[in-house]
Automatic annotation (TrEMBL):
GO terms for molecular function: manganese ion binding; metalloaminopeptidase activity. Residues 339-346 form the Cytosol aminopeptidase domain. InterPro entries: Leucine_aapep/pepB (IPR011356), Peptidase_M17_C (IPR000819). Keywords: Aminopeptidase, Hydrolase, Manganese, Protease. GO terms for biological process: proteolysis. One of its GO terms (cellular component) is cytoplasm. Belongs to the peptidase M17 family. This is Leucyl aminopeptidase family protein. Gene3D superfamilies: Zn peptidases.
Length: 509
């Protein structure tokens, strides 16, 4: 077990002694606002000899406090446009100092302002500790690492640990699935890792591994994986997951996750060093798997959540699919391949078509695709996640609700809009196919490069027919996480598991 459990602490006395805590980590924008006078007094004294106290994260010798250690992690740069992520940044610095100082069980004290935007600062700070303490699965397996701390106390007035621990369990799974090298986390191994993680979880789990079934049921996904069929251990997989809450089901959420375990670009091969880091092209499937883990632990009532993860390696070889080919999707749409490096939308199309069939008979369905889809979203929005919704989702304010949840839980979104031009862009030029998957230039230099793929997904999956005037309108929101799936180093940075927390909040709201 690598997860560090968060423990609710409702008794302030724990700051001094008891319950085995051996450091106090204070996260606050203003030392004077810390309710525990002993802490603000200690900090005020320390400031007289060290001007860094309150300016940057520092460790103070604090006899009388748990473990004799007081870490002050100041929340900096709060302005009109700041959101709760500043608390996450401070908490990461604070927990790292406590760990490096030798603490095994720190107590986190978050003293935040009462502003609405910082309402969940304590929970966000606790989640940030999990992010800060994560180590890559390869490292853990090679060095047999165990959890870096025995626990983290969180001083709260209402219990939060069940929620935070369930979220962190999901985030840990998502980071491991996303961040691991393409052989250790091949499609087959990704599927097995899911099966193992969901053993005894109560989730329904099914892995599609039969080649003929993949070819028939997931023709576009199989085209992406055509070259990978040459190598047994690189074969594609589809993982189907379902969570059914207790009681009467009043909502159904359906997720398609892009799990391209390695993306060479295919015949449109990535050149000039552009391939490194492409084992992270599975962040969408990873985040959805993580969300299912969190749901299985929290067991929210009254909702059903269905997921399909498309796991495939976009290899290059003599069998590789090429541009100009016309392939019929699971929905019966004839798709011309515009660029083999625009493979994620092909994988999602078949998954969404299967989910569409399930959504038709479901109670109050909302469909989603989650994917590291385009370079354009990174160019347009930097590290932010984009939401692109169809007209039905817009009427139901899906993106607006997700946006609000993201703001409050440190997983911010940008909302993009579908326009008529996006549908014109995916019309096949000579009419031989129903739709073309993409143009043949990098998305980062293509106008509307992250919006128009949503038009493609709608048309190729058959969801476009379920508009406002259909007797079964279907809500669909495409989520592009290419800019937010990892943080730090652009190629090998730490996976973030975004937007798992915001999706969970949306699911249970
Ligand atoms: Zn690609």
């Amino acid at each position: 077990m690598f997860q560090v459990p968060v423990i609710d602490v409702t008794n302030e006395q724990a700051i001094f002694e008891g319950e085995g805590f051996d450091a106090v980590v204070v996260v606050t924008p203003k030392l004077a606002d810390v309710a525990q006078q002993e802490i603000s007094l200690l900090a005020a004294h320390a400031q007289q000899i060290d001007k860094r106290v309150g300016q940057q994260a520092t460790l103070l010798f604090a006899p009388g406090l748990a473990g004799g250690r007081l870490v002050i992690a100041p929340v900096k740069n709060i302005g009109d446009y700041t959101d709760v992520r500043v608390y996450a940044t401070a908490a990461k610095e604070g927990i790292n100092i406590a760990k490096e100082a030798g603490a095994n069980k720190p107590l986190l004290v978050v003293a935040h302002s009462q502003e609405e935007r910082f309402k969940f600062a304590s929970q966000v700070a606790a989640l940030a500790c999990g992010q800060a303490l994560w180590q890559p699965l390869e490292t853990r397996e090679a060095k047999q690492l165990t959890a870096p701390l025995t626990g983290i106390g969180l001083l709260v007035s209402d219990p939060q640990a069940d929620l935070i621990n369930a979220l962190e369990a999901g985030r840990l799974l998502a980071r491991d699935l996303c961040g691991t090298d393409p052989e250790r986390m091949s499609a087959i191994n990704f599927a097995e890792y899911c099966v193992e993680s969901f053993k005894d979880s109560g989730l329904e789990v099914e892995v599609v591994d039969d080649k003929q079934t993949l070819l028939t049921e997931y023709p576009l996904l199989s085209a992406v994986g055509r070259s990978s069929f040459d190598v047994e251990r690189h074969h594609p997989r589809v993982v189907k997951l379902a969570y059914t809450g207790e009681g009467e089901i009043t909502r159904t959420l359906l997720f398609a996750g892009k799990g391209v375990v390695y993306d060479t670009g295919g015949a449109d091969i990535k050149i000039a060093g552009g391939m490194a880091g492409m084992s992270r092209d599975k962040g969408g499937a990873a985040a959805v798997a993580g969300l299912m883990k969190t749901l299985a632990l929290l067991k929210p009532k009254g909702i059903k959540v269905i997921a399909q993860l498309g796991l495939v390696r976009n290899s290059i070889g003599s069998e590789a699919f090429v541009t100009d080919e016309i392939i019929t999707s699971h929905a019966g749409t004839r798709v011309r391949i515009g660029n083999t490096d625009a493979e994620g939308r092909l994988v999602l199309t078949d998954l969404l078509s299967h989910l569409r069939e399930q959504a038709i008979n479901a109670t109050a369905p909302s469909l989603f695709s989650v994917a590291t889809l385009t370079g354009h979203v990174v160019r347009a929005y930097g590290g932010y996640t984009a939401l692109v919704e169809n007209v039905v989702a817009k009427q139901q304010k899906v993106a607006e609700k997700l946006y609000q949840a993201g703001q409050q839980w440190a997983e911010p979104f940008e909302v993009s809009h579908l326009r008529p031009e996006d549908f014109e862009k995916v019309a096949d030029k000579n009419g031989a196919a129903d739709v073309i998957s993409s143009n043949n230039a990098p998305s980062s230099i293509t106008a509307r490069g992250h919006q128009y793929p949503a038009a493609f997904l709608l048309k190729a999956s058959g969801l476009d027919k379920h508009g406002l005037n259909h007797n079964i309108p279907l809500s669909f929101t495409h989520i592009d996480i290419a800019g937010s799936a990892t943080e730090g180093d652009p190629l090998y940075g730490k996976p973030t598991a975004q937007p798992l927390v915001a999706l969970l909040q949306f699911a249970v709201s």
